[in-house]
C-alpha cells in the first residue's frame, strides 16, 4: 500500500508532508536513485542511525532470522511438494495445504475455531484491502473509519479508491458504537444500491485488536454492536487483524516491566481478544451470510517481504472474490510463497519464530515503558500495551507536537505525529510510538531523551 501510494503521480504533491508525518527525512526525487535502493525504508530515506520509533515492522534481527527459516521451508517444500503444485497456477482460495495448516495454527492462537473453508490467501493486508475494495466499491462510495486510524489506509481509501471517508469518534475502548450508528443513519441516503454480486451498501474499516495507532482493543459488547449495525445496514466490515498473534504476558499487563528471560512458551499469555469475525459468525446462526472479513498477514510476525497473509470470512463475502476475473485469470495469489507457508506451519518453524517475536517485542515494549515511567512527566498520558506494536502518547497542554517532532529528529529519534492518523486534523498533541524495530538499549535512551525534551517545553 505504501509503495502504491508513491507510484501514483496524483499523490506526489503531498508526499513530502506525509513522509514528515511518518518520521521520514525526505522522499528521494530521482527515480534512478530509487532503483538503487533495496528496501522501502531506504527508498523513502528513513532514519537508519538513530531510534526508529515510527517503523511498524519487525526489526533487523528478526528479519535476519528469516534466512534460516525460509531455507528450511524451501527444502521441505521442494522435497514434499510436486513441481506441478509448486509452479502452476494455484487454486483461487490459495494453496490447500497452506489453508489447512493455517487454520490449525490460528485456531490454537486465537482460542477459537478457524476453518480452512473460511480462508483465502492474500499478498498481505494491504493487498487484501485492495482486493476487497476493488471488487465491492467504487469512487464515491462511503467508508467509515476510526478516528484515529492507520494513516496509509486512510490515504488509500480516500485518494486511491476515491471513497467518501466518514470518521467515527473513538475512546479508550475503540469505536463509540452509538456514534457509529448515528453516522450510519445520517449517511444511509447516500449508500450505494445492493446487487446480487455487490451485496454491501457501504463499508467500515477497523483495526479491532491492538489498534494502530492507539493500541486499544474492542470488547465483546462493542463487537456485538458493530456486527448488529453492519447486518442491519448491509455494511461490509473489513477488520485488519494484523496484530492479533501478539498478546503480551499477564505479568506485563499487570505492570511488571522487568526484562523477561522466561521462554515465551512458558509465559502465561492469555489469547488476544476474540476477533470481530467471531461475533459475525456467532450472529449468522449457522447461515452462509456474513458481513465481516478478517484481513491479516504474516508481515508483523515473520517477514513483510514474503507478502503472505489471509482473508477469513463467510461464503457471502469470499465467494464473489473467488469468482472474480482477477483470480480466474491468475489463480490464487502468492501461490509459491503459500506452499512455503504450509511448510513453515507444518514443521513448527513459524511457531518457534512467533514465540521469539512475542518475547522480543514484549521485552522491547517493557524497556520503553520503563523509560517512560522514569522520565516522562506525569502530565503525559500513556498506558502499557496489552499486545501489538504501539503506544499512543498524549502530550500535556501547551506542548507543541510539531515542535517536539522536530526536536526529536535533531536527536535522531523518529516518531509519527498524531495528526497523520486523522482526516479531521485531530490529535496534534499525540504521537504513535512503535517499539518493535529497535533494541532495548536504543529504546531506553530514546525514552529518556523524549522525557527531557518534553520537560524542556513545559
Describe the fold and architecture.
With 458 residues, this protein is an alpha/beta fold. Helices cover 45% and strands 12% of the residues. The strands form 3 sheets. Strands 2-9-8-7-6-3-4-5 form an 8-stranded mixed sheet, sandwiched between helices. Helix 5 runs antiparallel to helix 17. The chain is globular, with a radius of gyration of 21 Å. The chain starts with a helix and ends with a helix. The N terminus is likely disordered.
Helix content: 40-55%
Low-confidence stretches: 2-33
Q: Give the mean pLDDT.
A: 90
Major sheet characteristics? 8 strands, mixed
Structural class given helices, strands, pairing? alpha/beta
State the separation between the terminal residues, measured CA to CA: 38 Å
Helix segment count?
Answer: 19
Number of extended strands: 13
Percentage of residues in strands = 5-15%
Tell me the radius of gyration: 21 Å
The strand line-up of the biggest sheet is 2-9-8-7-6-3-4-5
Which key features would you list for this structure?
458 residues; alpha/beta; 8-stranded mixed sheet; 19 helices
Provide a brief overview of the structure:
The protein is an alpha/beta fold and 458 residues long.
Q: Layout of SSEs?
A:
Layout: H1 2-7, H2 15-22, H3 31-35, H4 40-43, E1 51-52, H5 60-80, H6 83-87, H7 96-110, E2 119-122, H8 125-136, E3 142-147, H9 151-160, E4 164-171, E5 174-175, H10 177-187, E6 202-206, H11 220-233, E7 235-240, H12 250-253, H13 276-284, E8 292-297, E9 309-312, H14 315-322, H15 325-330, H16 335-346, H17 349-375, E10 390-394, H18 401-410, E11 413-414, E12 416-417, E13 430-434, H19 440-457
Parallel strand pairs: 1-11, 3-4, 3-6, 6-7, 7-8
Antiparallel strand pairs: 2-9, 4-5, 8-9, 10-13, 12-13
